[in-house]
Structures are given as C-alpha cells and as structure tokens.
Specification:
Elements (H helix, E strand, L loop, with lengths): L12 H20 L4 H10 L13 H44 L2 H15 L9 H18 L4 H24 L3
C-alpha cells in the first residue's frame, strides 16, 4: 500500500508510513464489510487506533481520506492487472497463431486472429437497424398474405394476433425458471 500523506510532526518517516498503512489496511477490511465511515472510525477507536498528534480517535473525515486513497490504489492495481492479463492473452494468441501457421491450420489461424481483434478492440461494432429489419419483415409478411389471397382488410387483425402471440411467448420465457 503506497502512502503519500504528509508526515506527522512527532513520528519518524518510516513509523508514520507504517501507521498509515496499518490504519488503511484496517479501514479496507471494515469497508469491505460495508461499514459506514462513522462505523469505521468507531471501529478504529475500539481497536486502539489513535491519532498521535491529537491523542484522539481518528474522525470519519480521516477515514474518508483513507478510503479515497485506497480506491485510487485499487483502481490503479485493477488497471495494471487488466493490462497484464491482456498482454498474457495476446502472447498466448501469438503462440497459437505461430503453431497454426506451422501446420497451415487456416481455421485456427482465423479464429485466433478474430479473438485477437476482439481482445484489442480492432473490430468496428456491428450496426443493426432493428427498425429496418422489422419493416422488412412486415413487408415480407404482407406480400406473403397477398400471395395467399388474404384480403388486405384482414392483414391488421393477423398482425395483431402475431404480436399477441409473440408477447405471450416472451412472457412465458421470462417466467420460466432458468
């Protein structure tokens, strides 16, 4: 845990840093148990954590500053872990491609290239025009109904039935246990 607070007047640098680090470890434990700032401050006092400058328990303001520092550190570590994981995945994909090229296994090469492109975010997102697809389906069904000789004035009623059936199907899937 890195410590970047100003040194307290009556403690040597190392002791001050160790005190902050120890306090933050305890703050982190209590925070993970979903305790509030004030509960954490009270918990620190119960465990004997006293501010050496004031000889009083630490306030919820100090706990908030500790949590802010911890959160920043956790975000930094998570980001570093993610970069490390991505790099490891990319190295593995490179090895898969190398082995596949040696065997001229084009299917594996292509799958590895697709996976690498997804990992690195190289592919553009696919655009799906839901409205156009729905419109095309309605036209397709209308043409089919016309070919079947269904009068145009009955189309609306049939579409209403289709929509009702689709809704019932969606509702039954939502109610079904997964």
């Amino acid at each position: 845990m890195s410590v970047n607070n100003k040194r307290k007047k009556n403690l040597p640098v190392d002791a001050h840093d160790r005190l902050i680090e120890h306090r933050r470890e305890e703050v982190a434990r209590m925070h993970k148990r979903r305790m509030t700032l004030r509960e954490i401050a009270a918990g620190l006092a119960q465990k004997g954590f006293i501010n050496p400058d004031t000889n009083a328990p630490y306030s919820h303001v100090t706990v908030k500053k500790d949590l802010d520092a911890l959160m920043a550190e956790w975000r930094e570590n998570a980001q570093a872990d993610l970069l490390t994981l991505r790099a490891a995945q990319q190295a593995e994909l490179q090895e898969v491609k190398r082995a596949a090229w040696a065997k001229t296994d084009l299917g594996t090469i292509l799958r590895a290239m697709e996976r690498e492109a997804r990992l690195l975010g190289l592919d553009m997102p696919m655009k799906i025009d839901i409205n156009m697809t729905l419109y095309e389906r309605v036209l397709e069904l209308t043409n089919l109904l016309n070919e079947m000789g269904v009068p145009a004035d009955k189309h609306e009623e049939l579409f209403a039935r289709l929509i009702a059936a689709a809704k019932m199907r969606v509702e039954s899937k939502e109610k079904a246990p997964s």
